[in-house]
Amino acid sequence: MQKRDHFASKIGFVLAAAGSAIGLGAIWKFPYMAGTNGGSVFVLLFIISTLLIGLPILLAEFLIGRRGQADAVTSLKKLAPGKNWFLIGWSGFIFSFIILSFYSVVGGWILSYLGRAILFQLSNNGESYYGELFASIISSPLEVIGAQALFMLLTVLIVKGGIEAGIERASRIMMPALFVFFIILVVRSLTLDGAWEGIEFMFVPDWSYFTANTMLLALGQAFFSLSVGVAGMMTYASYLPKEQRLGNSALSVSFLNIGISILSGLVIFPAVFALGYSPNEGPGLVFIILPAVFEQLPFGSIFLLVFLVLLLFATLTSSISMLEIVVSIGIKNAYDKRKRASWIYGLLIFLVGIPSALSFGVLSDFKIMGMTFFDFADFITSSIGLPLGALLISIFAGYVMPKPDSMDELQIKTSSYEIWYFLVRFVAPIAIIAVFVNKIVSLFM
C-alpha cells in the first residue's frame, strides 16, 4: 500500500488552497453575481461574509482535516467515533460531484474560446460578435459536450498524479501567473473612457438591494469561492504536516480570494459601462465582455490568448480540488487506487454533467422548479448544499470537537483563538440559519 501523500511546502499548500478558491468562483461567478444583484451591496456583503463567516469555517475545515490526516469521511469518524458526523464528508462528496458536473461545462466553454484564440479567430470582430459567439457555442451540443469531456480529461490527468507531483506543482505555476496578469488587465480596464461608472457600481451602495436574498447569495458566493462546506479544504489540510500554521494559511487564502474577486470586478465592470453593456449579462459576462476589452488593446489577440490560458489554469485549480474530494473519499486509505479512481469518477462526473452542458441548447426548455439543469445544479449547491455543509462544520468544530484539540491544532494566540471560537460557535451558525431559512421560506411563498 502506498504511503499517504503530503504537500511539500507551506506556499504549495496555500497556493493549492487558494487555487481551489480562486477559480471560476472569483473570476467567472463573482462578477455576474455582483452584476445581477446590485453591484456594491453584494460586494460589501460578500467581503463581510468571507471574513466573519467563511474564514472561521475555512479554519475549522483546516483543523479537522489536519487532525484527522485522512479523507473527510474517515477524519470525522476518527474525531467523533460512533457518531453520524461523518455524513458531512459524504455530503461534501455528493455536492462536489454535482458542482464539478456543471463547473466542467464552463471549463469547456473556456477551452472553446481558447481553441479559437489559438487560431486567431477572436480578433478584430467587433464588440457585438462576442455575444453572438457565446450564444452559438453554448447552444451547440457537440461542441459543449466535447469541450466538457476535454476539460474533465485535463482535470483527471492532474489529480491522478497525486498531491506533490500533481496538484501542488500545477498550483505553484498557475496562481502567480494569474495574479500578475490580472493586475495588467485592471490597469487597462480602468483607463477606458467611461470606466468610472463601473467603479461606482462596485463601490457606491444602492441599499435597495440590501435584502435577505442578496445576503444569502453573497454568503453562498463566499462559500463557493472559498470552497468551504464541501470538505474540500478539509481534504487539502489532511495532506499538511503538523508544523505548518493553519491560521496564517487561512488568512492568506481568504485575502487572496477577496483580492482576486475585487480585481475581477475591476476588470469587468469599468469595461461593461465603458463599452455600453449591461452589468446583469449573467453567466456569459466574462465571455462576452473581456474579449471586447481586449479589442481595445494593442496586440489584443495575444493578450486574450494568454488570459484564456491563465483562466483555464484558475479553473483547473478549482476543478482538481473538487475531484480530489471525491477521489479521496472514494479510495479511503487505498492510495494505490488513486489513478483508477480518478478515471472512474472523472467519467461519472462528465456523464452527470451532460444535461447541464445541454441546458442552453436542446434542453433549454426542460425546467426543474423553473430552472434549467445548469441553474438547478448551481442553486442546490450554492444556495443549499454549501451553506448546509458549512453550518454542520461550524457546529462540529464549535460544539463537538474538544476545545483542547482545536487549540492544539490551530496554534494561535489565546485572544485570536477566542475570537475564532466565538465566530464559529455563534456568528456563523446564526447567520447561516437566518438567511437559509428565509430563502427556503421564500421558495414556497
UniProtKB/TrEMBL annotation:
Which CDD domains does the record cross-reference, listed alphabetically?
A: SLC6sbd_Tyt1-Like
Coiled-coil ranges from the UniProt annotation: none
* Location(s), subcellular: Membrane
- Which PROSITE patterns does the annotation name? NA_NEUROTRAN_SYMP_3 (PS50267)
Instruction: Name the membrane topology term.
Output: Multi-pass membrane protein
Membrane spanning stretches: 7-28, 40-64, 85-113, 133-159, 171-190, 210-234, 255-278, 298-331, 343-364, 384-401, 422-444
**Keyword terms, alphabetized:** Membrane, Transmembrane, Transmembrane helix, Transport
Q: Which domain of life is it from?
A: Bacteria
What SUPFAM superfamilies does UniProt report for this protein, alphabetically? SNF-like
Q: Which GO terms describe its cellular component?
A: membrane
PANTHER family noted in UniProt: TRANSPORTER
Q: What is this protein called?
A: Sodium-dependent transporter
Q: Which organism is it from?
A: Paenisporosarcina cavernae
